[in-house]
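Subject: sequence -> structure tokens, single chain

Hey, anyone have a minute? Need the predicted structure for the following. Not urgent.
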Amino acid sequence: MRVKICGLRRETDAELAIELGATHVGVVLAADSPRCATHVEARAIVRCARGRAEAVLVFRGESNDAILRACEAVGVLRVQVHGADVQRCRELAGAGLLPIPVAVVSPVAQQLPVFADPPTERNPSLLDGGCGGAGTCFAWSLLANDLPHAVFIAGGVSPTNVAELLRFRPWGIDVSSGIEIEPGIKDPVLMRQLLRDVRAHGVVA
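Reply:
Had a minute. Here:
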């Protein structure tokens, strides 16, 4: 199983996440996010991850040109763009990036959304309970009958509830606010607890 620790701003947090088994590290470059990192912070995290975990840049509200410039400046191709529709994801892919399509699942949803382009190991997608970093869960019980392959599950995941999510054996989980001291600053105790629980379920990639 893949584990993405997102909303990172400190290289020390990224280092610990990777040491504990995270397969992906996410850096938010959305100007409206309290976890928005500087390019200097992002480059330090990317250097830390190189050859050990995949770095993902997270955007919301930026133009394609702004995203391309940021990716070039930081040196990352994998992007997660909240609010991007299918056509926009395809445009970003056509520009040489590797987008992770995001679908928001309403708290009252009766079924999971279907991605227009089926997710694959090389090009995964993400299901979120909110707009990114909101800490909002959706009904994970929907995964029982429709567990998607190559999809990260995000939104409100924390050490207190990750065991419930892991019962459905998702392909990947994405965690941000659930392991923080404050936005962008991770709590090493909570991070260790989360990854320990993941390993205990025998689902580490």
